[in-house]
Amino acid sequence: MTWTAHTTVAAVIEARGRFLMVEEHTESGLVAFNQPAGHLDPNESLLDAVIRETREETGWKFLPAGVVGIYQWRVPPDGKTYLRFCFHGTCEDHHPDVPLDEGIIRAMWMTREELALQQPRLRSPMVLRCIDDYLSGVSHPLSILHSLGYE
């Protein structure tokens, strides 16, 4: 069997002390909270992926401003590995009537405290970690990304 890390992107978007989140059905049938996030598609840059995923899952256009971090998570017990590129930025141009991605129940704005109370329902430990890193001021310029052959 060939080992593969699953590359994902996520958007941390804060407005008036609340974060744009999605409530979604997971593959295991549970309902979880997550940032707008998803898998990198073939022939897609990381920036294009996070903009696309945010629009598909929330109806908002995401404007990336920086990179919060790159997170590696090994999921127990099977060891499936996710490599998450987390961006922060703002959003504009909301289309609330656009159908959301399959599995997305709704997009909503939540405080960090509200999310902490939902810890058992967070999609992964990366959800709160990304927000905490963002709140502590972690931000790397988008210029650290180099998408060769995707321009």
Structural account:
- The protein is α+β, with helices and mostly antiparallel strands and 151 residues long.
- It has a single domain (5-144), classed as Nucleoside Triphosphate Pyrophosphohydrolase (Alpha-Beta Complex).
- Helices cover 19% and strands 40% of the residues.
- It has three helices and seven strands.
- The protein has helices at 46-58, 112-117, 126-135, and strands at 5-15, 18-25, 31-34, 37-39, 61-75, 80-92, 104-110.
- Strands 1, 2, 3, 4, 5, 6 and 7 form a seven-stranded mixed β-sheet that branches.
- Strand 1 and strand 2 (18-25) form a beta hairpin.
- The radius of gyration is 15 Å and the shape is globular.
- The N and C termini lie far apart (33 Å).
- 26% of the residues are buried.
User: Unreliable stretches, pLDDT < 50, 5 or more residues?
Assistant: none
Q: What fold name goes in the CATH topology slot?
A: Nucleoside Triphosphate Pyrophosphohydrolase
Order of helices and strands: EEEEHEEEHH
- Find the structural class using helix and strand composition: alpha+beta
Please, what is the average pLDDT?
Answer: 94
Largest sheet: 7 strands, mixed
Multimeric status of the protein:
single chain
CATH superfamily: Nucleoside Triphosphate Pyrophosphohydrolase
Total domain units = 1
How many E strands? 7
What portion of the residues fall into strands of 2 or more residues? 35-45%
Cα shape: globular
Helix coverage percent of residues?
Answer: 10-25%
Number of helices: 3
CATH class call: Alpha Beta
Query: Measured on Cα atoms, how large is the radius of gyration?
Result: 15 Å
CA distance, first residue to last residue = 33 Å
- CATH architecture grouping: Alpha-Beta Complex
